Amino acid sequence: MKRKRFRLSSLFKGLCLLIVLAVCVIPFLFMIITSLKSSQDLYSIPVYQLPEVFHFENYAEVLSGNFFQYLLNSLIVVAISVVLVLLVSAMASFSLIRVGFKGASGALGLIIAGMAIPVHVAIVPLFLMSVETNVYDTLFALIGPYVAFAIPMSIFILSDFMRTVPKEMEEAARIDGCPLYKIFFKIFLPLTSPALVTLAIYNAVQLWGEFLFALVLTQDIASRTLPLGIWEFKGVHQANIPMIMTFLTLSSLPLFIVYIAGQERMIKGMMVGSVKE
C-alpha cells in the first residue's frame, strides 16, 4: 500500500513538472517556429508546424536595423546595474548581519519595507531629477533607478544567506589578524556565490524586460533598450507577425544563455535554508 501511494505521489509530481515545463517551453518554441515563417505561412499552416522553407531573411532584416544598438544599450545598463546591486547589497548585508551596529535590525527592517513601495510611484520625481542633473536620455538615467529599486530584495535574500556562514570561520580569521575587508572578500563573497548568481540572474531578467522607466527616461535610439526596440519595431511591422517573433527571439537569447550558464549555482542558491545542519 505504501509503495502504491509512493508511486502515485511520484506520478503526480512528474505530471506537475511536465505541465510546468510545457507552460514554460511551448510558447518559446512557438515563437521560434513563427520567426522562421513568412506572413503567408502564418495563415496557411498550423502554428505548431514548421514551414517547408525556413525564412532566415527575417533575421537578416531585423539585424540590419537598430537591433544591435538596442542590444548594446541593454547589455551595458543591465551589466552595470547588476554588478552595482550585488556589490552594494553584499556589503550592506555583511554590515547589517555580521558586523552589527546599534539599530542594525531596524535598518534592515526599513530596507526590506522598501519592497512594499511600488517602484512606479517615483517615475515623475525621477524624470524631474534626470532633467535637473542633465542625465535625461542617457544610460545613466536608467542605471540609478534600476540599482536603487533592486537593492531591497537583494539585501533581503543575501542577509538570510549570510546568516548561514559558520561564525567559526569568521572568528578564526579575526584571530589570525585578518582585516574586516579581507574577511568580506575572501570568506563571505566566495561562500555566498550561489546566492549572488541567483540574484544576478533574477535581477538581470527583471531589468532586461523593464519598459516604463526606459520609456519615460530615454528618448533617442542611442539610449533606448530592447523593450523599447520591440515596441517601436512592432509599430512599424504590425501586420508582420513573423518579423516581430524574430525580434523577440533574438532579444531572448542573451538571457537564455546567461540562465543556462548559471543554472547550477542558481539552484544551489534557491536551496539555501531548505536543509538545516
Helical amount = over 70%
Which of globular, elongated, flat, extended, rod-shaped describes the shape? globular
Q: Give the helix tally.
A: 13
Q: What Rg, in angstroms, do the CA atoms define?
A: 23 Å
Count of discrete domains: 2
Low-confidence stretches: 273-277
- Tell me the name of the CATH homologous superfamily of the largest domain: MetI-like
From the N-terminal CA to the C-terminal CA, the straight-line distance is 33 Å
CATH architecture group name of the largest domain: Orthogonal Bundle
* Structural class by SSE content: mainly alpha
Work out the strand percent: under 5%
In the CATH scheme, what's the topology name of the largest domain? MetI-like fold
Briefly, what CATH class of the largest domain?
Mainly Alpha
Number of strands: 0
SSE string, helices as H and strands as E? HHHHHHHHHHHHH
Please state the average pLDDT score. Answer: 85
Profile the largest sheet.
Answer: none
